[in-house]
Design goal:
Length: 297
């Protein structure tokens, strides 16, 4: 092929136009070794970058899989609570009607037995049982009732103070140490009265988990830089015995309780309040001991 002919076609590298002896003469052994080393180094760098990209992609996929699994569990729990709440509302209404009649008859019986102190004690026990049932029915109806939130700009740190003040009778043990940490003020957009109810329930539960004393920590965090929450997170932690891992998945179920005199509705109501705010509540055990509940909104 002549030079004139090659100019009308695609460019052909010069070394392809050279014969083997000329190419061998053009590059010394040292140059060839250096070029080969550069090629190996470039290949190694590309391989390392590919490995790093693959590892990063695997980490991202694993994180997304875990997040999807958590979202699916939360959705399943939300649907389960909604179904149980609907059933509980129907049962509560069916119980409340005859309960009113029983209360009336017990009142009439108490008047007839006014001259019999021993029998009056039995009547008083029956009346106390009726009052307990009525309170349980009211709690059930509160749990099953649709929660409508009215959000406004509120200092969540002040809500914590309010809840602690309401829980003061349960926190007066000299062996119980209380600590509140976090920024002040921390203004967020929530329903203040409902959030106080949720925080109060968590604080009382933490105090009841430490009958012999311990440390109760309420910690606030806020800001838009955190991926796990939009407005703030609130952690309530105790140094009690913690939550039995076997029941950890059921503690938000209505009517499930590990207390002798509990109704099993307190945490279920807290869950509904946080859910109404389009938030999440996560329960677990701290690595140093004790239970902790974290609200994320």
């Amino acid at each position: 092929m002549t030079i004139a002919q090659s100019s009308s076609r695609s460019f052909t590298p010069v070394f392809r136009q050279m014969d083997r002896p000329a190419l061998a003469a053009a590059a010394s052994p040292a140059q060839r070794i250096e070029e080969l080393g550069c090629m190996v180094l470039a290949y190694s760098e590309v391989t390392e970058k590919l490995q790093q990209a693959h590892a990063s992609l695997q980490e991202t996929v694993s994180s997304l899989r875990d997040e999807l699994g958590e979202k699916n569990r939360l959705l399943e729990r939300r649907n389960r609570l909604a179904a149980i709440g609907e059933m509980a509302a129907g049962m509560a209404h069916e119980i409340r009607n005859p309960l009113g009649a029983i209360r009336l008859y017990v009142s009439m019986l108490g008047k007839d037995l006014a001259d019999s102190p021993a029998n009056l004690q039995v009547v008083a026990k029956i009346a106390a049982g009726i009052q307990r049932l009525d309170w349980l029915v009211s709690q059930t109806l509160q749990f099953s009732r649709e929660i409508t939130i009215h959000c406004a700009a509120t200092d969540v740190a002040a809500l914590v103070d309010n809840a602690i003040a309401l829980a003061a009778p349960r926190l007066q043990s000299g062996k119980l140490r209380l600590a509140v940490e976090g920024p002040r003020p921390l203004v967020v957009n929530v329903d203040g009265s409902l959030m106080v109810q949720a925080i109060l329930n968590l604080v009382i539960n933490a105090a009841e988990a430490m009958p012999d004393g311990g440390e109760l920590l309420v910690r606030l965090a806020g800001g838009q830089s955190h991926a796990c929450f939009r407005q703030f997170s609130l952690l309530v932690r105790d140094t009690g015995p913690g939550i039995d891992p076997r029941v950890l998945d059921r503690i938000f179920n209505p009517f499930f309780t590990t207390k002798d005199n509990g109704t099993g509705l307190g945490l279920a109501i807290v869950h509904r309040i946080i859910d109404a705010h389009d938030g999440t509540i996560v329960a677990g055990n701290h690595q140093d001991g004790g239970a902790q509940f974290e609200i994320r909104i």
